[in-house]
Amino acid sequence: MIKISKDPEKVPRWLKCTKTMIPDFVAEDPKKMPVWEISGAEFSQAEVHTANGISLRFPRITRIRDDKDWKTATSLTELQNLYKISKETSNLNIFSNISPTKNTISDNDSSQSSPEKRKKIKVKIVNQI
């Protein structure tokens, strides 16, 4: 890795990025870098991102993929397909107990109107040798 400190003059030729997305560090030779599996909350799209505008919200490295190299890592075409599939199939309704037309809690909801206070429990830890 090379520290470029978001300096546009130090961006290597192989890296295509906008001025707002210049990283602090870059790979000296990306073909020699490990492939990382990345997980995140969802895909988003904004023109500032260079991978066809696709980005991953709240990305986390899940694991190093020793079975892959730069040639077998996810391509832009595959990323575009993953983005498309995620937008077609994601139907997350966080408020599943709220009626979409009335904005009220459904009759099936057995929870109380106010949150229940949690009881504090004292736990005693005993060292066993």
From TrEMBL:
Single GO cellular component term: DNA ligase III-XRCC1 complex
Keyword annotations of the record: Ligase
Feature: compositional bias, Polar residues: 97-114
Keyword Ligase (UniProt): yes
UniProt GO molecular function: DNA ligase (ATP) activity
Chain spans, region Disordered: 97-120
SUPFAM superfamilies, sorted: Nucleic acid-binding proteins
InterPro entries linked: ATP-dep_DNA_ligase, NA-bd_OB-fold
Gene Ontology annotations of biological process type: double-strand break repair; lagging strand elongation
Family: Belongs to the ATP-dependent DNA ligase family.
The protein's name in its UniProt record: DNA ligase
Organism expressing this protein natively: Sipha flava (yellow sugarcane aphid)
